[in-house]
Design brief:
CATH architecture: 3-Layer(aba) Sandwich
Radius of gyration: 18 Å
CATH topology: Rossmann fold
Largest sheet: 7 strands, mixed
CATH superfamily: LmbE-like
Number of helices: 12
Bound molecules: zinc ion
């Protein structure tokens, strides 16, 4: 059954210019997960966006002829191209070792620095609580570590003056964000219609040739199943294609948590 899209989607359009930071463990995570939404926020709301790729991408191949150094360089170029295709020209590479990422204080500080520098209204990251995704996918531990480090960079690190005093010394004052969006989540609260940007999203994804191949390999592989995944998301709310998020809002006056909880239950019941 589909329900009234407007009641569930509820990602309000913002009228004033704002900045978004999107973090991810790997080159291509953003294109798989949220590039359709990013493209809409840029095109329709004039948002500016910074991508933060936390690992160096060097574990993304089982080809014995591919060296780690070659792959890191290749994936760097692919990510720059993928970002540009949706209008993102600020991409930061933190260079932590791919495949064995941990949510260390060092990673948290690196992300905190970028949040304090670019002062986003919204941060988008991977949901660290996702262990199993649908049937047949064990979430990559790097995704969970990236999400955990990002969340704790947002709170408390970015907004609390005494945490990471070295950042103050570098000139980065505390910053409090307005919204946190978790993707790769099993507890979505918001579905975002990306029907108008699904083609752009696929163009961005197709830049990651080292990961998903090209031509028929891409069309019948990654593109096909991701289109289906976004179609499934859309089906949940009666639109063609959707990405979905768990959204936390820090900038609105809270009513009662009881009222919020009742509304959440209503939404969930409507989806059954
Ligand atoms: Zn990944």
């Amino acid at each position: 059954m589909t329900i009234d899209y407007q009641t569930l989607q509820a990602i309000p359009q913002r009228d004033e210019p704002y900045h978004i930071v999107v973090t991810a463990a790997h080159h291509d995570d953003i294109e798989f997960g949220v590039a359709g939404s990013v493209a809409r926020w840029i095109r329709e709301e004039g948002a500016t966006v910074t991508y933060v790729i936390i690992t160096d991408g060097g574990a993304g191949s089982n080809d014995p002829d591919m060296t780690r150094e070659q792959l890191v360089e290749l994936r760097y170029r692919e990510q720059i191209e993928a970002a540009a295709r949706v209008g993102v020209y600020d991409v930061r590479f933190l260079g932590h070792l791919d495949g064995v990422l941990q949510a260390t204080l060092e990673v948290r500080r690196d992300i905190t620095r970028i949040i304090r520098e670019t002062k986003p209204y919204r941060v988008v990251c991977q949901d660290p609580t996702s262990v199993f995704v649908h049937r047949g996918y064990v979430n990559h531990p790097d995704h969970r570590a990236a999400g955990e480090a990002s969340i704790y960079a947002v709170f408390p690190s970015a907004e609390t003056r005494p945490i990471f005093p070295e950042l103050l010394a570098e000139g980065f004052e505390p910053h409090k964000i307005g919204e946190l969006y978790l993707n790769l989540t099993q507890s979505p609260t918001h579905y975002h219609d990306i029907s108008s940007t699904i083609d752009l999203k696929m163009q961005a994804l197709s830049a990651h040739v080292s990961q998903i191949g090209a031509g028929e390999d891409f069309e019948n592989g990654a593109k096909k199943w991701l289109m289906q995944g976004n179609r499934d998301g859309g089906t949940m709310v009666g639109v063609e294609y959707a990405e979905y998020f768990r959204v936390l809002k820090f900038d609105e006056d809270r009513e009662s948590w009881h009222k919020e909880e009742m509304e959440r239950r209503e939404r969930e019941a409507a989806l059954k």
